[in-house]
Amino acid sequence: MEKKEQKNLKVLPQREQLVKELTDQVKEDLKNYFKDRDYGVIAVTREDALRAFIVKTTNLCEIARLRHKLSPMATAVLGRALTGAILLTSLLKHGTNQRVLLRIEGDGPIGLVVAEANAKGEVRGFVQNPNVETFIKEENGRKKFDIAKAVGKGTLTVVKDLGFGTPYESSVPLVSGEIAQDIAYYLLKSEQIPSAVAIGVLVGEDGKVEAAGGFLAQPLPGASESAVEKLEKNVTSLPPVSTLIKEGKRPEEIAELIFKGFTTELLALKELSFRCRCSKEVAKGGIVAMPEEEIKSLIQEGGASVKCKFCGEEYHFSKEELEEILKEKQQGNN
Question: pTM for the whole thing?
Answer without folding.
Answer: 0.91
